[in-house]
Specification:
This protein is about 40% helix and about 10% strand. The protein has one domain. The chain contains six helices and four strands, in the order H-H-E-H-E-H-E-E-H-H. The radius of gyration is 16 Å and the shape is globular. Strands 1-2-4-3 form a four-stranded mixed beta sheet, with helices on both faces. The chain has about 190 residues and is of the alpha+beta class.
């Protein structure tokens, strides 16, 4: 199934078929391999995400393809928070580093996805998931560093990572030119300064 279509989800009750799942994950992996993992001068000659390739090759990314609702109430026992809670356990137990939840419908509005991620982060910060941070990516994302739109992905998605892992990774980049072109607003968006 091709991403050229508006959505890669089956119209019948928004069912994600195995083919849809494979196509969505393949699109995101290709985006990572051909864009996120490539060095760029804006980042001091480092990749947009210097850790993406290693995580992909070590298979420490858990991919989920779900037609999640951006107006989900984010209840403690609900599907999405249960998924994040399960992933949190897997980080300690199985060494997973990233939960990458892909929405199979490109038509999901950017503004609603950004608001959803803000709500999810706010919900997580006051409970047992406070050690995790969520970021969004979207085909229409306007988040950029210099002239590089770093979160412009093939499909709407959100990623969950541990704050400890993010801090360790960002600390390892402090002696490089990686953050040289980040504005104060961009630095805050990635959790800096601490």
């Amino acid at each position: 199934m091709s991403l050229a279509s508006h959505a890669i989800v089956s119209p019948a009750a928004h069912l994600v078929t195995p083919e849809c799942r494979e196509a969505a994950i393949a699109a995101v992996v290709k985006w990572s391999e051909t864009f996120i993992e490539h060095p760029h001068e804006i980042f001091g000659g480092l990749p947009i995400c210097p850790f993406a390739r290693a995580a992909r090759l070590k298979e420490t990314i858990r991919f989920e393809v779900r037609p999640f609702a951006v107006d989900d109430p984010l209840d403690a026992g609900g599907e999405l928070l249960s998924l994040v809670t399960e992933f949190a356990g897997q980080t300690a137990r199985d060494g997973l580093e990233t939960l990458f939840v892909i929405h199979p419908d490109r038509a999901q509005p950017l503004r609603e996805l950004v608001a959803f991620v803000e709500r999810l982060n706010a919900r997580m910060v006051s409970g047992p998931l406070r050690d995790f941070q969520v970021f969004e990516a979207h085909p229409d994302s306007q988040f950029r560093v210099g002239n590089v739109y770093t979160r412009r992905s093939p499909l709407p998605s959100f990623q969950v990572l541990s704050r400890e892992l993010l801090k360790k990774g960002s600390d390892s980049l402090l002696g490089s030119q990686y953050y040289a072109r980040f504005t104060p607003e961009m630095l805050r968006a990635v959790g800096m300064p601490r």
